[in-house]
């Protein structure tokens, strides 16, 4: 296992094989396709930010992908702006070590830096672990989208963090 803390950097197209493998493992019912990830990485830098978390293996074998996350930035009509967490994922054998919090906290700080008033996200109603992570990071539940996740029909909880 690793002793070094995870490092964050911008996701690049070269990360996509590892990202897609983790995506299919964690979201087997509705994984994003290679085309979706490529399309997202092709968006302008003022509209998206995708990060990967990497860790060094011991003995050294080069950095391995430990997680990834993405955020969308949407300008408002009156100079205000909003951010949405689009995805967040951590390799199961690295859960519970703060990598998810690091990814979420870094994206939230970037939203604040860009002048966003709020961060929004959707989370499956049956995903207690992710809901707990968001609640402890200052997100509150503001709505429910019934049957949002298909084909399972699972509800989505909409959560919001006020940055003002
Ligand atoms: C949700 C997810 C990103 C969290 O990543 P992570 O690296 O484990 O997150 P962290 O270690 O920063 O924090 C997890 C929290 O769960 C707690 N935790 C640790 N082990 C746990 C366990 N077995 N069960 C439940 N919670 C646990 C941690 O103590 C921490 O709590 P804290 O905030 O009070 O410190 C990760 O579990 C994941 O990839 N899940 C599958 C994909 C997913 O559901 N993504 C979210 C879609 S909206």
Q: Could you please describe the fold and organization of this structure?
A:
The protein has a domain at 7-115: Gcn5-related N-acetyltransferase (GNAT) (Aminopeptidase, 3-Layer(aba) Sandwich), CATH 3.40.630.30. The mean pLDDT is 94. A hairpin with a 5-residue loop joins β3 (63-75) and β4. By secondary structure, it is α+β, with helices and mostly antiparallel strands. The longest helix has 15 residues, at 99-113. A 7-stranded mixed beta sheet has the order 1-2-3-4-5-7-6, sandwiched between helices. It has helices at 16-26, 34-41, 99-113, 128-136, and strands at 7-10, 48-56, 63-75, 81-90, 118-124, 140-149, 154-162.
In summary, what is this structure?
By secondary structure, the chain is an alpha+beta fold. Helix content is 26%, strand content 38%.
Features:
164 residues, alpha+beta, 7-stranded mixed beta sheet, 4 helices, binds coenzyme A
